[in-house]
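=== Structure Prediction Worksheet ===
Name of assembly: unnamed complex
Input type: mixed (protein and possibly other molecules)
Chain count: two
Listed entries:
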Amino acid sequence: MVMTDPNKEGRFGEFGGRFVPETLIPACEELETAFRDAWADPAFVSEFHRILNDYGGRPSPLTECYRLSEQLGVRILLKREDLNHTGSHKINNVIGQALLARRMGKSRLVAETGAGQHGVATATAAALLDMECKVYMGQVDVERQELNVFRMHLLGSEVEAVSSGSQTLKDAVNEALRDWVATVENTHYCLGSVMGPHPYPWMVRTFHHVIGDEAYEQCMKLMNRVPDVVVACVGGGSNAAGIFSGFADTNARLIGVEPAGGAAVGRGVPGVVHGMNSYLMQDEVGQVQEAESISAGLDYPGVGPEHAYLSSIGRAEYPAVTDQEVVEAFQLLSKTEGIIPALESAHALAWVVREAATLQDQAVLLNLSGRGDKDVDQMMDVLGTENNQ
Amino acid sequence: MNLESGVGRMESFLRGRRDDGAKLLVVYITGGYEGWEAAVETAAAAGADAIEIGIPFSDPVMDGPVIQEASQAALEAGATPSSVLAAVPNLDTGVPHAVMTYYNLAHHPGHERFAATLANSGIDAAILPDLPLVESGPWRQAAAEVGVETIMLAAPTTPDDRLPELCAASQGFVYAVGLLGVTGERSTLASTATEIAKRCKNVTDKPVLTGVGIGSPEQAVEASVVADGVIIGSAVVRRLLDGGGADGVGELVASYRAALDAG
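=== Predicted Assembly ===
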């Protein structure tokens, strides 16, 4: 298997590891043990899937895009993670981690969020399981994602605006780590992507494996074969890891699309931050650089270590698209299929549109990781309110 | 480091001071922050037994608001690892120097190159708080080869079964993290501070210094009943941020020195 368990040091090839202060090492070890134990317990797995189905709305449908397929000459199938409760794939991971935290006797969750999707999902899980919750969000993101901030408050969570550093996702991770260093005895850090110290990258991918499993079955049912290409956007890379994990051992091409302003894999320089050794955008001495993307959820200078590994062995490709291409894809899907995608997910479509000439008559499975309601406000500024394009 | 004995300058200096009956005082100052060089010299003159020089990093996860602010200001003023280290040979302190920074700044240039740069700049030891024991082997080896000691952190959460190995791996001194949390002053000394120092002292005869959360000379004295001394950082840097300058730092360090000497 290509996407198998990491080794005992938590590495995928040379990537991964556990680069956190000594204070957190026992917590990471405890989490790893608890996760192995829970995932081997049929009662835990069954409760996880019961909540994802009855509460989260799984399985999510596979939607064939007839109009768009005709227009591009590419058969496009959307895995509809946007239809999950809370509007993105993030719910899979937070239900898993919140159940695990409760099993470990922790009463409080902390989380970082960029676009707010993971923060909303964590706040939701905390409400569902009656846990205390605090979400760290960069000041810049708080301003551009007001609605999600309000949602988190409605759900009973505290939201703290982070004004250090670049005031975006990476700084929210720093602040969540600082909180966890001080509160590790009663608090679980509900990390939102396939990043951070071992066991997070592996555990988060495992909770999202359901995306790939469902999509594989749905493709077999629809086409009796796997798609030619599986494409997803990549910030930290959780939705991509989830859908890739269903197809890594097939001959489907795996494409993770990064924003041009946050192309950690694309630039290919290894570095260590946020507990992991992975590809990282950094300057000539090793200071971490600020990512810049139209999409707050992809504004992250690093990437999950398993993606670095998949890139290094040539199993997955990580092209980048520009904000302009993303804005066009956002409108295209809205107008041709009646689906407003999250700006994050629009990155995946932007790549398909750009590469359409090379993908003629192929079947492309695109993970539509989230819905675009949260981005409408921002897009009104970008496009103007009387957009008649 | 004396490669024969495996004991470096930091450790032998601090052991010597301890053997003379002193409680040890290590002072942290953010490199690259305006006036830092003069502050280092006055801290040493006021009685610091060693100086810890921070090399500012973009993502200082182990630091609280005070050191974050100083690091950010230093970065904005153009501080780089090279610019900070280039100034160290000219510092007139008479005591050993450690750097405190984050692992990516060693990883990016490569262990050998970074360790050599430290050694050539008159740095005796390094503290990398996001490089825990389990990941530290290759760095410690590269550093040791050029005589740079690696100071390891022992946390209140470190289990008993790992503490002997951690203390054995630590060189220079053992940095006992006084509380669950990031750097910064606290109004009272955490009970964890004494416990972790005691646990370390039970398994090592290396100097054990308590840092993180020391907010007053009285707390320093309290922490040093068990520990061999303390590390102060945020209290010192706050003086710089408040415009106290090198003189303010000198006064502050002298007050800790006097309290520790009086016991």
